[in-house]
Fold this sequence. Notes:
Blueprint: H1 2-16, H2 28-34, H3 48-74
Amino acid sequence: MLRNLLALRQIGQRTISTASRRHFKNKVPEKQKLFQDDEIPLYLKGGVADALLYRATMILTVGAYAIYELAVASFPKKQE
């Protein structure tokens, strides 16, 4: 019984622990080099994926605004 409680305690400590068992390479210096001193806009520095995400976001935003304006224009205001 005591053995089970100790095992349960160890499992609880492992899952709550914030210490990482994996050691990741620090990529901050590489990213700092990428994002400094260029004429390329920040939202395009990530390559093709960033360009596609930017364009998709702009298309969705402009499209949603256009649909909103059409909906507002389709219902005239009441004249009092």
